[in-house]
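Reply to dn_fold:

You asked what the input looked like. This is it:
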Amino acid sequence: MKRKRDIKTKQITKYKPRLNVHGGQQQYRIHYFDTYAPVVTWTLVRLILVVAILDAWATRQVDFVMTYAQADIEFDLYMNLPKGVQVSDRSRGTHVLKLLKNVYGQKQADRVWYNHLKDRLVKIGFTQSAIDECVFYH
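and this is what came back:
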């Protein structure tokens, strides 16, 4: 649970919960198989921005809200109930959550999000660069 505070008074103004999975408890080849996700280099970002300025290209920055939670999960994955979740009967140890979407903390979360984004960009007409797999152009 993250606490947001007022800058002046330092009083807590709101609580921001985030559901995390304990990725350290996931076992390779049982809960996940691949974790690789490409990362764009800052050199390439700077180069593209310089070319965009010189050629007067329109550029746009995008910030994805709840990034990982937008991607569907690859296979069935379950987690124990988070602390504080109330169960009506006394058999708390027998209840689990089946995850339907990607969740922060999974070992494969980065790769699943990247594949989701890549598929969406290609679907709307973007082409993936052959030089850097993080660059898409239209």
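The chain has a mean pLDDT of 81.
Hope that clears it up.
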